[in-house]
Amino acid sequence: MSKQSDCPLCTTDGGALIWRGEKLRVIRAVEQGFPAFYRVVWTDHAAEFSDLNAADRALCMDAVAVVERVLREQLSPIKINLAALGNMVAHLHWHVIARYEWDSHFPASVWASAVRERDDAREAAVTQQLPAVDAVLQKALTLWAA
Question: Which whole number is the average pLDDT over 27-37?
Answer without folding.
Answer: 96
